[in-house]
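Note to self: keep these together.
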Amino acid sequence: MNEKADKEFVKDICAQGTDFSQWYIDVVRKAELADYAPVRGCMVIRPYGFAIWENLQRALDDRIKASGHENAYFPLLIPESLLAKEAEHVEGFSPQVAWVTRGGDEDLEERLALRPTSEAIICSMYAKWIRSWRDLPVLINQWANVIRWEKVTRLFLRTTEFLWQEGHTAHRTEREAEEETLRVLDLYADFLHDVMAIPAFKGVKTEREKFAGAVRTYAVEALMPDGRALQAGTTHHLGQHFARVFDITYLEEDNQLHYVWQTSWGVSTRLMGGLIMVHGDDAGLKIPPRLAPIQAVVVPITFEKSKAEVGAAARELTTALQAAGVRVKLDDRDEYKPGWKFNEWELRGVPLRLELGPRDLAAGAVTAVRRDNRVKQQVPLAQVPAWVRAELEAIQRDMLAAATAYRDAHTRVATSRDDFYLLFQGRPGFVRAPWCGDGVCEDRIAEETGATIRFLPLATEAAAGEQCVGCEERAREWAYFAKAY
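Structure:
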């Protein structure tokens, strides 16, 4: 790479405070996470971005399987007659559905939808597979792509095609279905907390915000540094709506036919967008160690006289770290200067950088630099593997603590209409406020402030004696509002 290209690569990305949206695009593209595809609204996930997604997927998949679910795969193409069976469901997705009308040189007799979600195709199969109470529960998950014809797109956060997992379960009783919905909600919140270092609120959606065809929708909601909320995952109690439409019945022990109770739930590649925004800074990414494809990078600082000795020590250190279970990379490229490498690995969010030069070698140590707080310290060479493992856990904890402190500092309370509307002249984060429970009022607040009810607390919090911040009538409960992605 020539000198001009070097400067182009390491030049500053747009500052978050100047233009957060441009900062986000700069980071995604300069860190080589994804790029725009030739198809409108679609993206190409590049190897480094896909490596992060694979780690995320693997960690979540392990949890899904540990909770008793199995993976399967269902077709991308859904016959129109199946999709149209559940009227509320198809109406909710109709504006986003893409259709296949020709196959080869022939017009199709029936249009085929590119799946916007898989309830229809999966329910048609459950109707075939489920016969007896002995067949229940059915606990199936799939990792797949989805097509939704979005008008406004943004890399990872909202694209025409995206990757996700979607769980679809069937149960004997309503209680079992509700327990499943809440169990997966907890699974998502714990995954965000423990693996992604992202704190999230859990709650239930309002009737206006719930999934089309669901009885209830629950969500995990995270807060981004620009004050907007991100719906990070949803779980849906589907009741018996789809079971009745698709005739999914089973013979109970009393020899009576019953409809099953169902759930569905999912998270998508928008989690990648949340990861970038929650932890990133003006230098680029910060990746929590449990997700990082490269947890530590070894950068030898060489001069002609000491090149062989330093290089050998760097290789030995890399081998020792690999043996200790650390995902480590040795960056011994001669064509780049150390400063350029430092910028590159900071941009890519590698949690730890280990610098090894002739002075370090003479002192029997390495210079370790944390990406999250840039703290630099000397670590004796013999102690590096154990120290790195412990430090990676410390970085994981500290990143979660920083994100939690930000969220908590930007979760406000408004008890009057004036205070509420004043807060939403900006981007205050989450605002806890009393609400009357009326959907018309909810819509008016959204139209006038740009803020929506992101969730209602799982345990209903009565707002006795309070006035609704939207209409100033008697409030029924407390709700959490935010502007959102």
